[in-house]
Specification:
P-loop_NTPase; 5 strands; alpha/beta; single chain; Sulfotransferase domain-containing protein; about 300 residues; Rossmann fold
């Protein structure tokens, strides 16, 4: 019984993989949901985390020794909290190594420019009020944390997992492959985990992704609505006006006027911010990726 650990990254099709791909009971045993993963591995403070308890919980969910199922632990929470700089990503990798033993590691990534846009939209969706410029460049006071663009230098986490589980047990797959050729994504993953080609005729589900992001034209209205509704990013909003905030939020998802112009402005700002920042990292990451990242829009160095 092989164990596959999929610790993210965020915004790379992880929800689809958890709710569709890894729910295929012909092949996979998805051992924990998000709440269980958080409670078992992520939320405990270093002084409260119990290796023995976590190991026992994982062992109890493993499939039978003679099973052909692939046991799976999948949660983007395991690569850290983006909005505080993913500062726990290293310790979470070490916790996983301490409690699982041998495993195959799948990291899913995304080209950094669309990743930055998607993360900012997620921030606003979840209650954030900063502009894109402030979100990308904000420097908190000493002792406080914030989003850091370095978290998308993906090779750092891939290298750390390689140092723990062995480089031969690390696979990095781009979201762009998942979108453009889902069957190829599936076949590469299964060959990596099992060492064998897929049984002829076996294919992956064509069910579409489930996540919905607001249109970029909705950002101004959403930022205002976030003053009036309690959210994970802003739990102390003026809740006496929460009905107004909820109404504005609902309306914002229908806003299409000005979307092209807003998209162009966001793309221009992110290009200026990201150009030259990630090429070295992506070039180092390539050794874990079986397809050419530069062909998929990733900045690399020749």
């Amino acid at each position: 019984m092989t164990l596959l650990i999929h610790p993210g990254f965020h915004k790379t099709g992880t929800t689809w993989m958890q709710e569709v791909l890894f729910k295929d009971e012909r092949l996979f045993n998805l051992m924990f949901d998000q709440l269980e993963t958080d409670a078992l591995l992520v939320r405990p403070h270093d002084f409260q985390f119990s290796k023995q308890d976590a190991t026992a919980s994982i062992d109890a969910r493993r499939s039978a020794a003679d099973s052909n199922l692939i046991d799976v632990i999948s949660s983007e929470l395991l690569c850290g909290n983006m909005f505080s700089g993913s500062r726990d990503s290293r310790i979470l990798a070490e916790r996983l190594f301490a409690v699982t033993g041998p495993a195959k590691i799948l990291l899913t990534v995304r080209a950094q420019r669309p990743m930055l846009k998607s993360v900012y939209l997620q921030y606003v969706k979840r209650g954030g009020r900063k502009s894109l410029t402030d979100f990308l460049n904000f420097e908190p006071e000493p002792g406080y944390n914030w989003f850091r663009p370095e978290i998308f230098e993906f090779h750092h986490l891939a290298d750390h997992y390689a140092s723990l589980f062995g480089a031969q047990n690390i696979l990095v797959l781009p979201q762009e492959l998942l979108i453009g050729d889902r069957q190829a994504f599936f076949e590469i993953l299964m060959k990596f985990v099992t060492g064998e080609a897929l049984v002829e005729g076996m294919s992956v589900s064509n069910e579409k992704g489930v996540g919905i992001s607001p249109p970029s034209s909705a950002i101004p209205m959403l930022r205002f609505a976030n003053l009036l509704r309690k959210t994970p990013v802003n739990p102390e909003a003026m809740t006496s006006f929460s009905g107004v905030g909820d109404l504005l939020t609902s309306l914002s998802y229908r806003m299409r006027f000005g979307r092209k112009r807003k998209d162009a402005n966001i793309s221009r700002e992110i290009k200026s911010f990201a150009d030259g920042r990630y090429g070295v990292s992506n070039t180092k990451l390539q050794s874990y990726v079986p397809v050419d990242l530069s062909d998929l829009g990733y900045e690399t160095q020749s």
